[in-house]
Amino acid sequence: MLRTPLSNDTITIVLLICLVLITLAKYTNTKRLYTYFGILVNSQYVNRYSKDLKIFDYFNSLIFLVFNLVSSAIIFQFVKADSNTNSDFKLFTIIFLAVFLFYGMKLVLELTLSKILQLDFFFKPYFFRKISYRHFFGIFSLPFLAYLSYHNGFSKVYALWILYGLGLLYLISYIILIKPFFEKIKQNMFYFILYLCALEISPYVILYKLII
Predict the structure, then answer these.
(1) How far apart are alpha carbons 67 and 103 in whole angstroms?
(2) Interatomic CA distance for residues 154 and 7, integer angstroms
(3) CA within 20 to 30 Å of 71's CA: 27, 91, 106, 144, which one?
(4) Residue 141: inside a domain, yes or no?
């Protein structure tokens, strides 16, 4: 049985919004954006901008929205085929709000935990680096999302390959991320393992189970 291609209207709107947000980020700080594009190959961006420790300034907020939109679009394409709703926009809005709340609440819990454990000296620079790497994957995934969405439709297989690929890249970037903090991590190994289990591994396992 042939699969009916999904409408790309919602994805088109998402891609346009993402391009507008990236353009705004460029006009906000062109040099910072270009430096950000090289985050996977050098540490210039995190070394320079982590000194301010502003986890959510205007630039980071724009990139955060791009990441949420792209993540929501990938999940939207994955669940659309099994959804009974007649409104793509309604389904995407629900997914976007869920993703936005997921990462927003996760960040609040992480920052709260760091204050309770009195580990701000470690977690704040760590968080800045982590969200910088993570949100970059939103921009990185844009061309793949666009190509696969307009190339004979989008299937669950495509979505899974993107998710697995991003998961692998995220794992690699995470290893790169913790290298500068290795000595501090050794000194607070118990708290770091507690943090990994409670706020890094468990939420993504739950999210994966909900999607799949």
Answers:
(1) 10
(2) 10
(3) 27
(4) yes
